[in-house]
Structure formats: structure tokens, C-alpha cells
């Protein structure tokens, strides 16, 4: 009898401790939790809710207005049988791969040069960062004028005597993607440079002193010591640049409007045109769902390796 009573008391004590712990968890930073409630509701309703809405109506035959007529994978079959969509996907893959590699490489090299304590560093940094302050619409219009065959750089140099000079890439279907790449690099490289420079300035000076004492060349110090230490900066830069690549739209509209023909089409423009111009909501939502799936295929494995691997090691 005594043992049963003591066990009941222990159980009641444990339950009391559990309730008190739960109460402390619920009341801890209560004001912060109340303040965060609208944000949580917004995420659940706007982001998750609209994502589910998009996926559902991509399986319908919605035209001007959303309808509930389920048609299965008909919109997706039509999507992948459309040459315009296939061309837009290949353009984005090509542009994204080169833009990501060149933006990170050039941004890091420029940051290394600025890290040498060059004269007029602040002025040079401001000049390189200035294009990032402009919208992609402005960037596209600027480069559209520069590459205009009659009014831009080509026409100007030909009027000065260089009759054979040619720089009309926006009018050539096989070169227009390079025009987009140049405009994108012009705008985004300066921002990546500033990120890399901040990462370089955070490296302890003792690292450099030890490398010089050991006789390690500067390029090997950057490559095998500094770069691994800047992993977080590179991850941030990749996420920001990658997000800009996936939603590439306004630069294309301002610079080429997808032309000549469909030579510079991108998925975001395809979605916009079918949603608001062609009046085919189902097709537009199918395309946007494929963009979402592509991003998830990239993000989920990366997040697992980045965070899941760490938790297992710890």
C-alpha cells in the first residue's frame, strides 16, 4: 500500500512538473509570439494556401476564370509539347548556369582586388554597386539602347569610321541570350562583390600572417584556406543570385521582349503571357507549378545536406 501511494505521488509530481514546463513554454516570450501571429497566418494563408490553389487549378481547364473542371495532366502534356515552353526552359538553364558561375567568379575576383587596400576603394565600390540600385527594367532599357543596331554602340562607331563594327546581338536569335547575360552580369556582379568583400574582411589577420610565415602563395591561401572559411557567404550569394535567375522576367521584357521570335523566352514570361494575355489560367498555373517543382528539387536536397547532415553529426 505504501509503495502504491509513493508511486502515485511520484506520478502526480511528474505530471505537475510537465504541466508547469508546458505553461512556461507557452508563456515564454508571449508578447513576441502574439506579435508573430499575423506573420504566421500570412504565411499559412497567402504562401501555402496560394501554392495549393495554384497546384490544384493547374489540373483544370481554366481559361479566363478559374473553374473546377478537372482534366488531369492535360495541361502538363500540352506544356511539354509546346516549343515556346521548351525553349524558355533551355534558355533559363543556359542563362542560369553561366550567370551563376560568372557572377560568383567575377564578384569574388573584384572583391580580392579591392581587399588589397587599393586607392579610391570606396569610389570604385560605389561605381560597381550602382547598377544593382537600378531596376531590371532600367537595366534592360539601357542595354537595349547600347545594343541598338542604328542608335547604339554599333551605329556610333560606324559613324566614326569603323564601318565593319557589329554589335547587334539583340537582333540575332543565336546571340540574344548573350546580350541578356551581359546585362545581368552588369547589374548583379557588384552586389556579389560587396558580399564577398565583407566575407574577406571578416577573415582574421592571423590567418594571413601564418600563411606568409609558412611561405604559402597568396592564390593558394585564397583557394584552400579563405574560400572554405567563406562558405556561408557563398551560400548566401548562391541563394540570392539563384532566386533572381528563377524569377527572371523584367530584364527580358525590357531588353528583348522574348525576341527575336522566341529566342529569349523565359518561364516567368511564359506564365505571365498565358495568365494575362492569352487568357489561359490552367496553362499558366501548370507552368508556374513546374517552376515550383524545379526549385523544390534543388532546395530540398541542399537543405537536407546543409541542415540535416549537421544535426546528425551533432
TrEMBL record:
Give the GO terms filed under biological process for this record. transmembrane transport
Q: Which SUPFAM superfamilies match?
A: MetI-like (SSF161098)
Predominant location:
membrane
Per UniProt, subcellular location reads as:
Cell membrane
Membrane-crossing ranges are 34-56, 92-114, 126-146, 175-200, 221-246, 284-305
As for membrane topology, the entry says: Multi-pass membrane protein
Query: Keyword annotations for this protein?
Result: Cell membrane, Membrane, Transmembrane, Transmembrane helix, Transport
Boundaries of every ABC transmembrane type-1 domain copy: 89-302
Q: Name one Pfam family in it.
A: BPD_transp_1
One Gene Ontology cellular component term attached to this UniProt record is: plasma membrane
Q: What family is this?
A: Belongs to the binding-protein-dependent transport system permease family.
Protein name, as recorded: ABC transporter permease
Q: Which organism is it from?
A: Devosia pacifica
Amino acid at each position: 500500500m505504501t509503495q502504491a501511494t509513493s508511486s502515485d505521488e511520484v506520478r502526480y509530481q511528474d505530471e505537475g512538473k510537465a504541466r508547469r514546463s508546458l505553461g512556461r513554454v507557452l508563456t515564454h516570450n508571449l508578447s513576441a509570439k502574439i506579435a508573430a501571429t499575423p506573420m504566421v497566418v500570412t504565411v499559412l494563408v497567402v504562401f501555402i494556401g496560394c501554392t495549393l490553389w495554384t497546384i490544384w487549378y493547374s489540373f483544370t481547364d481554366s481559361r479566363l476564370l478559374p473553374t473546377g473542371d478537372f482534366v488531369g495532366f492535360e495541361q502538363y502534356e500540352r506544356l511539354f509539347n509546346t516549343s515556346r515552353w521548351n525553349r524558355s526552359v533551355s534558355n533559363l538553364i543556359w542563362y542560369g548556369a553561366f550567370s551563376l558561375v560568372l557572377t560568383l567568379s567575377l564578384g569574388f575576383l573584384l572583391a580580392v582586388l579591392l581587399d588589397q587596400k587599393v586607392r579610391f576603394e570606396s569610389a570604385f565600390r560605389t561605381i560597381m554597386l550602382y547598377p544593382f540600385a537600378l531596376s531590371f527594367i532600367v537595366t534592360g532599357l539601357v542595354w537595349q539602347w547600347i545594343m541598338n543596331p542604328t542608335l547604339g554602340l554599333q551605329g556610333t562607331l560606324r559613324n566614326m569610321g569603323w564601318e565593319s563594327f557589329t554589335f547587334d546581338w539583340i537582333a540575332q536569335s543565336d546571340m540574344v541570350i548573350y546580350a541578356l547575360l551581359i546585362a545581368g552580369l552588369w547589374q548583379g556582379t557588384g552586389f556579389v562583390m560587396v558580399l564577398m568583400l565583407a566575407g574577406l574582411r571578416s577573415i582574421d589577420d592571423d590567418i594571413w600572417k601564418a600563411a606568409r610565415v609558412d611561405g604559402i602563395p597568396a592564390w593558394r591561401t585564397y583557394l584552400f584556406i579563405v574560400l572554405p572559411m567563406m562558405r556561408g557567404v557563398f551560400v548566401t550569394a548562391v541563394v540570392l543570385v539563384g532566386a533572381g535567375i528563377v524569377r527572371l522576367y523584367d530584364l527580358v521584357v525590357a531588353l528583348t521582349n522574348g525576341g527575336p521570335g522566341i529566342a529569349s523566352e523565359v518561364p516567368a514570361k511564359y506564365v505571365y503571357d498565358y495568365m494575362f494575355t492569352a487568357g489561359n489560367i490552367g496553362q499558366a498555373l501548370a507552368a508556374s507549378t513546374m517552376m515550383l517543382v524545379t526549385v523544390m528539387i534543388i532546395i530540398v536536397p541542399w537543405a537536407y545536406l546543409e541542415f540535416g547532415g549537421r544535426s546528425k553529426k551533432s
